[in-house]
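Ops channel
N.P.: pipeline sanity check, posting one input/output pair.
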C-alpha cells in the first residue's frame, strides 16, 4: 500500500521506499495544508507535530485566530482573495464578476493504478499494482462546483503525478481564469532553479539561478511549449551536483502555453507551480461540464540531477511513450533535408536511398518539398498532393521503390499549417487562426490552421489519410514551423476566445490519436522547427522528437546534454550531417559527428552519395556500431559526467541494467597545446566488476574507473594514448570507450 490516511485528523500520506508526500485538512476552514514532500518517512498515526505556526501580528484571519491566515499556511491548491496574497493555483470568476472562492475538503477516494486523463496525454500504468491514486474532492457551496485534486504515487518510482479537474455542478456557467496542474509550498528558499532555455537552433540550454525573493518564472505564450523554455523546472540545493544531493523536478505533460512559477514569500516559503499559462487563458465551464488540467510529473531525488533525470527517463520511456515502437529498436534513418532541401526528384532521392541501404541504413525519410508547388518555403502547405514533376510515381510509387530496395520509407508533413494560394486556403480562407479586422501575421510565409475546430482536424486527417493509405509509410515526421499570433477562433463565442490556445493543442492531440489508431505501426517523430515542441505531451504520441535544427556536433553537446535533464535518449533525434556544418560552418570530424549522434536515435542527414569511399566505410562502421549497441543506448542508465556549460570537456555514460556493459562519450571542444593531464571519472559501474576497455587489453575494476577514472594521457602502448595520438591535437576531438565485464 502506498497511500495511508489518518482518518480522524484527515492526514494523507503518499509514500514508497524513496519518497513521502504528506498533507492534511485544516480543522476549521477545511482547506488543505501541505506538510511534507521529500525523502521517504515511516508512516505515523499523527502528523500534528509537522504543523508550523508563528504568531504574525497584522495578519488577516481566516478561522478566527491570528495563526489561521492562509498567507502563513503552506497549501496544496491555494486560491487568492481570502487571506493568502501569494499567486494562486486557481482562479474562477462567476457571473457577478466575483473571483472569491472557498473550496473546502469534501471527501477522498483511493483508486488502484492510475486513471487516464480525458483527451490529454499522461503517464500510465500497465498493471494496477504499479501505482495508487488519491483523489481529493473540494467543494465550493456558493458556486456549487468541485475541484478534484488527483495524486498518483508510483510504487517503485520517485514520482508523484498530479492533475486537477474542475466540475460545474451549479445552474450557471462560470469562468476558469487559472487552473494549475500542481502547486507545492516548500518550507524554505535555499534552492537554485534549474531550467532549459533557448531559441531556434539553440534549444535545451541549462540555466541555473539562485532563488530570489519574489516571483521568477518560465513560460510560453506562443501556442507551443517553444524553443524558449521547456515545460520543466527543478529546484536543487546549492551543493547538489549531477551525482549527489537533493532536487525536485517538475515536468508538465503538455505542448501548449505553460507557466512554471516559483514565488518566494517574505517568510522564505517557496511556492512552485506548473500548469497551463493563465495569461490569455479563460475557460467557460457550463453546468455539468468538467475541465481537466494537464498532468504535472513531480520527481524527488536525493541522488543529484542524474537521479532526477533517470527517474524521468525511465518513466517517460516506458510509461508515457506508448504503442508499437515503445520498446522496439528504432531504425537508423537517413533524411534528405540537409542533403537536398527542396531541390530533389525521384531519381535523386532514390540514389540517396540506394547508397544508404548499401551502407546499412534502414529507413529513408523524404522531408519537406514533395507536395503542391513547394520549391521553397513560401507555398503549398495544406495541399498534401504529390508534385508529379518531382515524383512522377507519386509518394505511393516512391515508397514502394524504396521498400523494394529493402528499406523502410518515411514522410514529412506539417499538418497544422496552410500557405496562401493553396487549394485548401482558397476553399477555406476562414480556417486560419486570425482576429477579425486585424492583420494576420505571417511566420515562415504560412498561417496556422484553427485546430480548435473539429471540421478542420477532420479535413486534415482525410488529406493525410489519402496519402498514407495508398503508400507504404513506416515513419512520419510531424513538423510545426511557426508560433500562433492573433489567436482567435471564428466559431467560438466572444466569451470563449480565451479557450483558443488550449483547444488548439487538444485538436493536435486528437489528430495524432486518430492517425495512431488507424496506423499503429507508423513511427512518429515530432518536430517544431527543431525542438520547439520537445515536451512530454508530444512523447505520448511520438516516441521520438527532432531535437534541434542545429546538427553541428559541438552545438549538439549543449543541446543534448540539456535535453537529457528530462528526456530519455530514446526520444532524442540526432543525426550526422555534412561539413562545413549548415548552421555554424564548423568542421567537426566524421567521428566526432557520429560520436555525438550515437547518444540519441541516430541517423544521417547529408548527401551520402557525395561521401568519399573512406567516409562511406566509416558510415558502415558507425551503423554497425549503433546496431550492436542500440538496445543498450535505448534502455541503459544515462549519466551526465562533464558539462559543456562548465568546461571545454563534455562526457556522459550509458550503463546497462546489470552493469556488465557501458559506453562512454568523451568530447573536447578546443585542443590545447601541452595540455594538463585529463581523466574522466566514470559513474554507475559495479565497483567489484572487472571491465575491459574494448580495443585495448587493459582491464580495470569498476571502483578504479569511478575513483581514478580513465586516464586519457595514460602511458599505455595499446589503448587510449595510441588512439588519442591520431586525433591529437585537433579541435572538436572525441572518443567513445566501450566497457565490458571480463
Ligand atoms: C524544420 C525542421 O526542423 C527541419 O528538420 C525540416 O524538416 C524543415 N522544417 C523543413 O521545412
Amino acid at each position: 500500500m502506498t497511500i495511508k490516511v489518518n482518518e480522524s485528523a484527515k492526514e494523507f500520506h503518499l509514500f514508497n521506499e524513496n519518497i513521502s508526500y504528506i498533507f492534511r485538512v485544516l480543522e476549521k476552514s477545511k482547506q488543505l495544508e501541505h506538510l511534507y514532500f521529500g525523502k521517504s518517512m515511516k508512516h505515523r498515526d499523527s502528523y500534528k507535530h509537522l504543523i508550523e505556526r508563528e504568531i504574525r501580528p497584522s495578519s488577516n484571519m481566516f478561522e478566527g485566530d491570528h495563526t489561521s491566515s492562509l498567507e502563513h499556511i503552506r497549501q496544496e491548491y491555494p486560491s487568492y482573495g481570502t487571506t493568502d496574497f501569494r499567486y494562486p493555483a486557481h482562479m474562477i470568476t462567476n457571473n457577478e464578476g466575483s473571483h472569491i472562492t472557498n473550496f473546502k475538503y469534501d471527501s477522498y477516494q483511493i483508486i488502484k493504478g492510475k486513471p487516464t486523463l480525458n483527451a490529454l496525454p499522461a503517464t500510465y500504468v500497465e498493471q494496477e499494482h504499479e501505482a495508487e491514486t488519491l483523489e481529493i474532492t473540494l467543494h465550493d457551496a456558493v458556486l456549487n462546483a468541485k475541484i478534484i485534486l488527483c495524486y498518483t504515487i508510483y510504487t517503485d518510482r520517485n514520482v508523484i503525478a498530479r492533475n486537477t479537474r474542475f466540475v460545474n455542478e451549479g445552474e450557471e456557467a462560470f469562468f476558469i481564469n487559472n487552473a494549475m496542474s500542481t502547486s507545492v509550498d516548500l518550507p524554505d528558499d535555499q534552492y537554485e532553479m534549474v531550467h532549459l532555455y533557448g531559441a531556434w537552433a539553440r534549444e535545451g540550454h541549462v540555466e541555473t539561478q539562485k532563488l530570489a525573493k519574489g516571483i521568477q518564472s518560465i513560460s510560453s505564450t506562443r501556442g507551443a511549449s517553444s524553443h524558449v523554455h521547456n515545460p520543466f523546472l527543478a529546484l536543487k540545493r546549492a551543493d547538489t551536483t549531477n551525482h549527489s544531493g537533493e532536487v525536485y523536478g517538475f515536468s508538465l505533460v503538455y505542448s501548449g502555453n505553460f507557466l512554471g512559477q516559483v514565488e518566494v514569500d517574505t517568510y522564505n516559503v517557496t511556492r512552485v507551480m506548473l500548469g497551463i499559462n493563465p495569461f490569455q487563458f479563460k475557460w467557460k465551464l457550463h453546468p455539468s461540464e468538467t475541465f481537466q488540467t494537464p498532468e504535472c510529473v513531480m520527481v524527488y531525488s536525493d541522488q543529484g540531477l542524474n537521479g532526477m533525470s533517470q527517474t524521468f527517463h525511465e518513466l517517460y520511456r516506458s510509461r508515457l511513450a506508448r504503442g508499437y515502437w515503445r520498446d522496439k529498436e528504432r531504425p537508423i534513418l537517413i533524411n534528405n533535408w540537409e542533403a537536398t532541401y527542396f531541390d530533389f526528384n525521384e531519381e535523386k532521392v532514390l540514389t540517396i536511398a540506394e547508397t544508404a541501404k548499401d551502407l546499412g541504413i534502414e529507413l529513408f525519410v523524404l522531408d519537406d518539398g514533395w507536395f503542391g508547388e513547394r520549391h521553397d518555403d513560401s507555398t503549398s502547405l495544406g495541399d498534401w498532393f504529390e508534385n508529379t514533376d518531382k515524383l512522377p510515381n507519386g509518394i505511393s510509387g516512391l515508397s514502394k521503390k524504396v521498400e523494394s530496395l529493402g528499406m523502410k520509407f518515411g514522410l514529412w508533413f506539417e499538418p497544422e499549417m496552410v500557405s496562401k494560394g493553396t487549394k485548401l486556403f482558397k476553399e477555406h480562407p476562414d480556417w486560419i487562426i486570425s482576429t477579425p479586422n486585424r492583420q494576420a501575421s505571417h511566420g515562415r510565409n504560412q498561417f496556422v490552421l484553427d485546430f480548435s475546430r473539429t471540421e478542420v482536424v477532420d479535413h486534415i486527417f482525410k488529406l493525410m489519410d489519402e496519402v498514407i493509405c495508398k503508400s507504404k509509410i513506416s515513419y512520419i515526421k510531424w513538423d510545426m514551423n511557426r508560433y500562433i499570433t492573433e489567436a482567435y477562433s471564428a466559431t467560438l463565442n466572444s466569451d470563449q476566445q480565451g479557450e483558443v490556445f488550449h483547444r488548439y493543442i487538444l485538436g493536435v492531440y486528437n489528430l495524432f490519436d486518430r492517425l495512431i489508431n488507424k496506423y499503429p505501426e507508423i513511427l512518429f517523430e515530432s518536430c517544431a522547427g527543431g525542438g520547439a515542441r520537445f515536451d512530454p505531451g508530444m512523447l505520448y504520441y511520438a516516441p521520438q522528437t527532432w531535437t534541434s535544427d542545429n546538427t553541428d556536433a559541438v552545438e549538439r553537446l549543449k543541446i543534448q546534454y540539456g535535453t537529457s535533464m528530462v528526456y530519455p535518449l530514446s526520444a532524442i533525434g540526432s543525426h550526422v550531417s555534412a561539413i562545413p556544418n549548415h548552421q555554424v560552418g564548423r568542421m567537426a570530424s566524421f567521428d566526432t559527428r557520429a560520436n555525438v549522434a550515437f547518444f540519441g536515435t541516430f541517423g544521417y542527414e547529408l548527401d551520402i552519395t557525395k561521401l568519399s569511399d573512406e567516409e562511406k566505410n566509416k558510415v558502415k562502421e558507425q551503423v554497425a556500431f549503433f546496431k550492436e549497441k542500440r538496445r543498450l543506448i535505448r534502455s541503459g542508465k544515462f549519466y551526465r559526467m562533464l558539462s559543456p556549460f562548465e568546461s571545454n570537456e563534455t562526457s556522459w555514460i550509458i550503463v546497462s541494467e546489470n552493469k556488465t556493459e557501458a559506453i562512454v562519450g568523451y568530447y573536447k571542444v578546443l585542443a590545447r597545446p601541452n595540455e594538463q593531464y585529463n581523466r574522466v571519472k566514470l559513474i554507475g559501474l559495479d565497483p567489484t566488476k572487472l571491465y575491459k576497455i574494448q580495443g585495448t587489453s587493459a582491464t580495470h575494476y569498476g571502483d578504479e574507473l569511478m575513483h581514478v577514472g580513465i586516464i586519457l594521457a595514460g602511458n599505455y602502448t595499446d589503448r587510449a594514448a595510441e588512439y588519442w595520438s591520431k586525433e591529437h591535437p585537433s579541435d572538436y576531438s572525441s572518443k567513445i570507450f566501450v566497457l565490458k565485464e571480463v
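N.P.: looks fine end to end. The domain at 3-319 is CATH 2.70.98.60 (Beta-galactosidase; Chain A, domain 5).
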